[in-house]
Design a protein that fits this description.
201 residues, alpha+beta, Endonuclease, Chain A, four-stranded mixed beta sheet, binds zinc ion
Length: 201
């Protein structure tokens, strides 16, 4: 960590007072409580509090890991989402769709179908649907991660086009927090899309 404060003032201050650190990656200043800084300040090899944000941390490490692990970014995002492979809204949508379209064969969270992950795939309709959160639209995990996500999204669209799969995305970036009530509009949107293709058949 890069400290940006007077060490004597730091030593004489109460534990919950915040002190300024500088980001190793972008140089931006951010503050952390003395109590937390104290644990690592005498440990120069520690990576703790080196970065101002998750975005900067990912930006800094992304290149190194992406070579060995194409899913590195997905894993970080999963970790951020409390290690759940599938989000609450994905599970909610799955439950609602099975309830609504009893006879239809769904494949949820499939990565084998086209080489990219599809949240919902309906083979009989040649239909793929992704539920896209904020990180698909804004660089909340840093610039590099955003570029990577956008690149992957574009390739996925292309792959679907090549395979003749109808592909739709549901933009859920307006949802601040999952609740069944705020998720229902997305379920309805998906139901409408599926109904459109069912009627076309
Ligand atoms: Zn930074």
């Amino acid at each position: 960590m890069i400290t940006n404060f007077d060490i004597q003032e730091f030593n004489e201050s109460p534990n919950n007072k915040k002190f300024e650190l500088l980001c190793n990656y972008c140089g931006k200043s951010f503050t952390v409580k003395k109590k937390k800084i104290s644990k690592y300040i005498h440990n120069p090899t520690s990576k703790k509090y080196c970065f101002c944000s998750l975005g900067c941390r990912i930006d800094n490490f992304l290149d190194k890991y992406i070579e060995n692990d194409d899913n590195y970014l997905d894993k970080i995002i999963q970790k951020k989402e409390k290690n759940k492979k599938r989000s609450k809204i994905e599970l909610f949508v799955e439950e609602k769709l099975i309830e609504y379209f009893g006879g239809l064969n769904f494949i949820f969270d499939s990565s084998n179908t086209i080489g990219y992950n599809l949240d919902i795939y309906i083979p009989s309709l040649n239909l793929g649907i992704d539920i896209n959160g904020l990180h698909h639209y804004k660089p909340i995990f840093g610039k590099k991660a955003f570029e990577l996500t956008q690149d992957k999204d574009k390739k996925k669209i292309l792959e679907c086009r090549n395979r003749g799969i109808n592909y739709h995305t549901i933009n859920i970036s307006n949802q601040k927090r999952f609740t069944k009530e705020t998720s229902q509009i997305y379920v309805d949107e998906i139901i409408n899309i599926i109904n459109f293709y069912l009627l076309k058949k």
